[in-house]
Amino acid sequence: MSSRGLLLAIVIVAVMALVAHRPALAFDEERNFAGSAQLDYDFVPSEPGAVAAPGPATTFQGFTLESALKVAVDISDHLSANVKACYGCHGFELDMAYFDLRAADELNLRVGRFSPSFGAFNLRHDPANHMTSDKPLPYDMGRMLRKGDWYNGVLPSPFPTNGAELNGTHWIGDVAQLDYAGYVVMGFKNDTDPNPTDFNLQESHLPYYVTSDPRPAAGSRIALTLKAGDKSDMTLGGSGMFGTYDPNNRLTYAIVGGDLSLRVGRTAVRMEYLVRRQQMDTSNPDIFKYAIAPVGGDLFAKHGAYVEVEQPLTNALDVLARGDGMYRVGNVSNAVVGSGSDAPGYSPLSYESWVARETLALAFSVERNFRFKGSVELWEFSYADMAGREAELSFHLGAVGSF
Amino acid sequence: MRRRALRPGISGRIASALALGAAACSSFYPQVGPSQESCGVEPLHVGSTGGSEYGASAGDGYDTSGAANGPPSDMCSIDAGSACDDCESKWCCPTRLACYEDPVCVCADMAMDVCLASANASPKVTASCWASFTATGNVEAARVACERAWCTGPCAIPAP
Fold first, then answer.
1. Has this prediction a pTM greater than 0.80?
2. Is some CB atom of chain A closer than 8 A to the CB atom of B25?
């Protein structure tokens, strides 16, 4: 057994031993039922009608619904379970189905299906937990303009997968909190394409929750929160994930990110940076726009970042300003991801491409758990679309409720 | 004042850290060769991701606009004027069309014609032209495989 495997086994045994030796307490099983739903209308005046339907090079205009129902059960002092089902663009999805076996605040073992700890936004990915209708570009999962060109964000959120995670929180007095997580999960996959060049995210969101890539992905996160009082704190975090995504376990991906959140009074400032380095199957060179370079020619890097400032104007009205973008560098495949073929297509991206977006959003709470959201977004691209546009506008109007 | 030199161990570690940082940065910076689609020739039909045409036709015999964009049989009529083209049209129409529909293959095809024209019947250069075309990708390899099976003589295809 390798030293890492031995260490993992020791930790698991330690958790189980701690749990087993806890005195039995009178405990009433507690169940919590929660849910949220967001209906959003995305209006893109510049998009040609011919490509308004869902497709590889388009955006999802019109109405979209994201809803979720969650049951959390505290079975005992040290065992809890969570199940969350979502309904969104992909239809129904099991976002959570896991057990938490908690020995202490510092030692919790999570097993099942969940989104592994990565970045700060992942905790707020439910539309009831953020003020805009859509996600920051590094975490976009299909709501961005020209989504087919970019094939979504750096790490489309949420990213539920099967696996195990060890996490915990350690308090350092009243002023600091250290969070950590380490996990092994199924990870991303592309079992469909003969020459995989990117994740097939559809495969990760279909009920066929297995993969022919048998090796797990591994990752970790660490975050330090400093508290300057009841109303001010700062969190600095770093995350990483590494795995393979093809059936032969040959093509690797690595995602790393850093995040900083600052809360002063009622003002919140958040920023994150992510980069994904991904290998591509270059055994069929003619699906690529560029000849394959002998060194460093089988990979691309996709960078993404956002900065946002959230400020309540009144008790009911919040304003948010956000700047985000992505930058992709590397060879470009013309084959459509997930098509199962290497038939030639067309990607308008070039060796270096970027997209930037500026967002101004308002959120108005009608009731404590129900708010309207509206936003205007200015998009800028490094390349022109079929109509010659390098800039576009989009408008969101939506409503979100939670219970 | 005399400066204290860094201990070799520390400077070595700093150098190692810098080298590691440079390697990490370079591993996130991919490289590419020249564009495979910049020859200015339009493919026949661009497939499923948007249906756009791109690249201006060079008007050099590869122009696939107008009548040439018609049914596949138009591209495989046996009136091309050379024994090789006629043979390929007769026996290898699907692989020929697949190449003309592929933005990379259509450029590789033009590059090979230029290569063959400059070969001046040199067997070595001719073989290199064919090898280079074949190695471009699956579409090119399939086209050459068919030509090799049916048209080795008319097309004067060198042995692999």
1. no
2. no
